[in-house]
């Protein structure tokens, strides 16, 4: 990477930060700016409102919500006033204000890219209009795409699509703020029951350690999250019901329901009302519900906040009210964000208590999956003279074994967190190699001692276990021919062994690589150079285009 091009881009980054800080947008009321931004994101999620429908773009909507998180230090400058309603709040956002929102989003996209530049994963060229970023080699671009796909499989997901009770919603929105309590209860209870049973993710901390580490039970977190999602589904359902009324009305009634739709896309509600709904649906004691909600709620004017690096808090609370982001609730309430926030708010507590629990939990899940393979035994934390094997599996019938090193860092919210992920991957490979370099007799002797068998010459494989992904080119090059597995990929591989009477564990890397290549061939559309207008300077960056339907189908199969 030419140093002068990098230096010029780094200098421009500082100027862009200054331009972002000085936008007149931040002089508007907080409610006005956040509402306009959330409504813009909904436009991508829904495909547009009021007969302006197009194909929904949920990935674009999610990217927008994640990029809003970079605005946190700037939104603190906004006015606190909330206005008389959404119409009043949006009235102060002029055409130029909407243009500045678009500028701020492009700046946030630039913020996502710069960590890759700083650690030399992206090369920089100066151009007449700005800068051109590109991966230095085709291999680097390929490894980045594979890492994205691996991380996609590890995301928290719904196993089914939620269906709204349209009749009750239409009745409620027509008379709101008055409604039949039976309708409200039925809609919320339906959403709660659905989300309680259909969210799929592996727990990051063992259930027995949850209360000791976090101060509440895992089951309580799951119930509170389901209640939050029920609230979000109700809000989005009310928005769609108001949209339907607006389409079927004229003049003043059309305007009334049009703004009612916007109101529910970024509702401002009483804090005690929101907390009460969540607490009663989840049936969790008040103090425990509050403890859980603090990971998803912040005062936007406080000096220290928790939004950032791709994580946007779903609840903005101030002056007794809470501004709800229904889309953020559905996208940002994964368990990993509890750990992300704790790491941000109380690093000492995280280091002392949580980090020690992450790896045992990952190993426990992995052991359960491998134990399903007929004829295979596993052991955790196996000592050898040069260190420790995190997870060791052995099949006596094929006299084959595989050693794993597990790195259970918090999956990155954004690009700024991938540096530690890559360092963990390289550490895992270094530990694997230490054992690989032993003479064959010493490795076979370990199998005989640990599994109490007469082994003889054992055939070996090695693998790296991760919660999410592994990093960019350097991490994948370090892994090489070893197996790169997170829990969904491990489930696929162990499923393949389930069809074999005698499991040759040296096939682990082959099965994992073949599956990932199959998914990549199906899902990767290609890289596309996208110009990003950052305050008048054009930064051309490589954007990965994926067939998200293909990834969703594969994820659904793994979830099943």
Radius of gyration: 25 Å
Largest sheet: 5 strands, mixed
- Into which percentage range does the β-strand content fall? 15-25%
Terminal CA distance reads 45 Å
Count the DSSP helices.
23
Sum up the overall morphology in one term.
Answer: globular
Number of strands: 15
State the strand order across the main sheet: 9-10-11-12-13
User: Taking all residues together, what is the mean pLDDT?
Assistant: 92
Enumerate the spans where pLDDT stays under 50 for 5 or more consecutive residues.
Answer: none
Helix and strand content put the structural class at: alpha/beta
Q: What proportion of the residues is helical, as a percent range?
A: 55-70%
Task: Please provide a written account of the structure.
It contains 23 helices and 15 strands. It has 560 residues and is α/β, with parallel strands linked by helices. α21 crosses α22. It is globular, with a radius of gyration of 25 Å. 42% of the residues are buried.
Structural features:
560 residues, alpha/beta, 5-stranded mixed β-sheet, 15 strands, globular
Summarize this, please?
Helix content is 57%, strand content 15%. The protein has helices at residues 3-21, 30-46, 58-68, 72-75, 86-91, 95-118, 138-153, 166-175, 181-198, 207-214, 218-247, 251-265, 271-282, 286-293, 326-332, 335-345, 347-370, 418-436, 440-451, 473-479, 487-497, 508-523, 548-559, and strands spanning 123-127, 130-134, 157-158, 199-200, 268-270, 297-298, 315-318, 321-324, 376-384, 387-395, 400-407, 459-466, 483-485, 524-534, 537-546.
């Amino acid at each position: 990477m030419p140093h002068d091009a990098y230096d010029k881009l780094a200098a421009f980054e500082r100027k862009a930060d200054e331009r972002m800080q000085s936008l007149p947008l931040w002089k508007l009321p907080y409610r006005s700016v956040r509402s306009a931004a959330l409504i813009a994101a909904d436009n991508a999620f829904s495909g547009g409102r009021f007969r302006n429908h197009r194909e929904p773009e949920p990935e674009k909507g999610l990217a927008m919500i994640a990029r809003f998180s970079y605005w946190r230090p700037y939104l603190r400058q906004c006015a606190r006033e909330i206005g008389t309603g959404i119409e009043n709040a949006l009235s102060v956002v002029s055409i130029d204000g909407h243009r500045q929102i678009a500028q701020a989003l492009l700046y946030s996209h630039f913020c996502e890219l710069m960590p890759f530049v700083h650690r030399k994963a992206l090369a920089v060229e100066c151009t007449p209009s700005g800068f051109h970023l590109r991966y230095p080699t085709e291999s680097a671009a390929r490894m980045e795409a594979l890492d994205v796909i691996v991380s996609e499989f590890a995301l928290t997901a719904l196993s089914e699509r939620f269906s709204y009770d349209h009749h009750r919603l239409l009745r409620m929105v027509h008379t709101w703020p008055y409604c039949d309590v039976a309708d409200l209860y039925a809609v919320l209870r339906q959403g709660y029951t659905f989300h309680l049973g259909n969210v799929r993710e592996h727990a990051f901390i063992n259930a027995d350690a949850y209360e000791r580490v976090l101060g509440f039970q895992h089951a309580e977190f799951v119930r509170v999250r389901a209640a939050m999602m029920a609230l979000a589904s109700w809000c989005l359902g009310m928005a769609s019901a108001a949209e339907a009324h607006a389409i079927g009305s004229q003049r003043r009634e059309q305007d009334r329901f049009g703004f009612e739709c916007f109101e529910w896309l970024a509702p401002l509600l009483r804090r005690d009302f929101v907390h009460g709904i969540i607490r009663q649906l989840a049936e969790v004691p008040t103090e425990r519900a509050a403890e859980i909600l603090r990971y998803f709620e912040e005062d936007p004017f406080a000096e220290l906040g928790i939004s950032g690096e791709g994580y946007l808090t779903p609840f903005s609370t101030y002056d007794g009210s809470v501004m709800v982001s229904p889309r953020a609730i559905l996208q940002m309430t994964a368990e990993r964000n509890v750990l992300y926030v704790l790491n941000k708010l109380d690093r000492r507590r995280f280091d002392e208590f949580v980090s020690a629990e992450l790896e045992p939990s990952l190993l426990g899940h992995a052991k359960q999956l491998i134990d399903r393979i007929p004829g295979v035994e596993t052991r955790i934390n196996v000592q050898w003279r040069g260190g420790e094997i995190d997870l060791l599996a052995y099949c006596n019938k094929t006299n084959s074994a595989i050693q794993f090193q597990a790195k259970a860092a918090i999956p990155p919210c954004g690009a700024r967190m991938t540096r530690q992920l890559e360092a963990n991957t390289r550490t895992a490979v270094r530990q694997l190699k230490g054992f690989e370099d032993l003479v064959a007799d010493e490795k076979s002797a370990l199998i005989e001692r640990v599994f109490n068998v007469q082994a003889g010459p054992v055939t070996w494989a090695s693998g790296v276990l991760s919660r999410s992904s592994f990093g960019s080119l350097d991490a994948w090059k370090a892994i090489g021919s070893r197996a790169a597995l997170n829990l969904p990929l491990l489930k696929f591989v162990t499923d393949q062994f389930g069809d074999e009477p005698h499991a040759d564990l040296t096939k682990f890397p082959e099965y994992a690589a073949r599956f990932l290549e199959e998914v990549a061939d199906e899902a990767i559309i290609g890289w596309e150079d996208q110009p990003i207008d950052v305050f008048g300077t054009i930064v051309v960056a490589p954007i990965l285009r994926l067939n998200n339907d293909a990834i969703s189908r594969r994820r659904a199969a793994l979830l099943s």
